[in-house]
Design goal:
- By secondary structure, the chain is of the alpha/beta class.
- The chain has four helices and seven strands, in the order βαβαβββαβαβ.
- Helix 1 crosses helix 2 and helix 3 runs parallel beside helix 4.
- The chain starts with a strand and ends with a strand.
């Protein structure tokens, strides 16, 4: 980890419909980081489709460092998981529905200087990550799409 880089967290809807708006927001965040004395940004995201993928591809094109934190859907449950709560997806694979929440907390625990949130249609995962970030005192730049 380069301490001169601003770690920027990205959370957003899997259905985010406006890639250009998200990319422009990330460009503004990068510019702001430079104005604040950082040498650049490193993008932290949760490896989901939609906003995370858009952000990842943008950061890759820009030559930025990327920190990926995928949810461990098929992994073991945590102590917060109630017995018998695991579900099966369309392919019949069993998963823990709380894995995304654990991943969101892991991202918050990495203490980014800011979260960019691309909120669309009340995405529960985005809302959960924002709630956790705000509770930890991490500011956010939230954009929404109609």
């Amino acid at each position: 980890m380069n301490p001169a880089l601003a770690l920027i967290g990205l959370t957003g809807s899997r259905l985010w419909p406006d890639p250009a708006r998200l990319e422009n927001t990330l460009l503004l965040v990068w510019h702001d980081a430079l104005q604040l004395g950082y040498t650049g940004i490193e993008l932290l995201h949760g490896c989901a489709e939609g906003a995370d993928t858009i952000g990842h591809n943008w950061a890759w094109r820009m030559g930025l460092l990327i920190r990926e934190r995928p949810a461990d859907w098929g992994g073991p449950c945590g102590p917060e998981c109630p017995p018998g709560h695991r579900r099966r997806n369309r392919r019949g694979t069993e998963y823990c529905p709380l894995a995304g929440h654990r991943r969101n907390q892991q991202m918050v625990d990495e203490r980014p200087v800011l979260f960019v949130a691309a909120s669309y249609r009340n995405s529960s995962g985005t809302a959960d990550c924002l709630r956790r970030a705000r509770k930890a005192g991490i500011p956010d730049w939230t954009i929404t799409a109609d």
